[in-house]
Amino acid sequence: MQKNTEKFSKMKEEYKAMCKAVREEKLRKDTADKKTSCTNLIKVRNKCTQAWVDCPRCEDVKREKKASGPGVRLTKSELFRLEKDMQALKMVINQREAMWCKLAERERLQRVQLTRLNNELTNLRALSETRQNELENKTQALSDLNMQVERQRLESASLRRHILKLERRER
Questions:
Q1: CA 125, CA 131: separation in Å to the nearest integer?
Q2: pLDDT of residue 40
Q3: Distance (Å, whole) CA 134 – CA 128
Q4: Residues 36 and 94 reside in one and the same domain
Q5: How far apart are CA 68 and CA 61, in angstroms?
Q6: Among the three residues 13, 35, 67, which one is the final residue of a domain in this structure?
Q7: Could you tell me if residue 76 is inside a domain?
Q8: At a CB cut-off of 8 Å and minimum separation 6, what does 42 contact?
Q9: 60 lies in which domain range?
Q10: Domain count, the chain
Q11: 67: Cβ contacts below 8 Å, ≥ 6 apart
Q12: Measuring CA to CA, which residue among 38, 68, 74 is closest to residue 56?
């Protein structure tokens, strides 16, 4: 079944190529017979396209243009319009360059500020760390002092008891 579809597709391609060759041959014959005016149109019915055929005078003009070299002919109004367009483009380019310079300067200033802020952040982190260490040290010293106060209070309470005992004995 697959071989049949392959054969069918090959035959279909061959048929299309043959039809194309027949149309091209017909077009060549029609154009060879009708080279009389610049507005001669030949209709190709199968493709719905049209082909322009130039008369010999038009072909001579084209050859002369090619022989004279590349060149552009402009009227004064076209030249004036092109000059205005060029001036407008120059103004746009200048404005964009000025904006580019401003943006580049702004970016540079932002980078400087960013580095300054990064330095300030590292300094603040170091300061925070030292303050944290100081706080821990002071907390430890305070707890040590509280323990000493508690010991001294206990010691003073025991001494009071001893003093009271001694005073009772003496009486």
A1: 10
A2: 44
A3: 10
A4: no
A5: 11
A6: 67
A7: no
A8: 27, 30, 31, 34, 50, 51, 53
A9: 2-67
A10: 2
A11: none
A12: 38
CA atoms of 21 and 18, how far apart (whole Å): 5
| Residue 77 is assigned to a structural domain of this protein | no
Separation between Cα atoms, residue 143 and residue 150, nearest integer Å:
10
d(CA 102, CA 108): 10
User: In sequence order, what are the residues at sequence separation of 6 or more whose Cβ sits closer than 8 angstroms to the Cβ of residue 52?
Assistant: 40, 41
User: Would 72 be classed as within a structural domain?
Assistant: no
pLDDT value at residue 72: 66
Task: State the CB neighbour count (10 A cutoff) for residue 42.
Answer: 15
Q: Do residue 162 and residue 93 come from a single domain?
A: yes
What integer pLDDT is reported at residue 6 of this predicted model?
Answer: 79
Residues 6+ apart with CB under 8 A from 13: none
**Token output for 47:** 């493709």
Per-residue pLDDT tens over the stretch 73-103: 778 888 899 999 999 999 999 999 999 999 9
Do 58 and 104 share a domain, yes or no? no
CA distance 36 to 64: 20
Same domain for 57 and 104, yes or no, is: no
Which residues of the chain are modeled with pLDDT < 70? 1, 30-54, 65, 67-72
Distance of CA 49 to the CA centre of its chain: 43
* Residue 115 lies inside a defined structural domain of this protein: yes
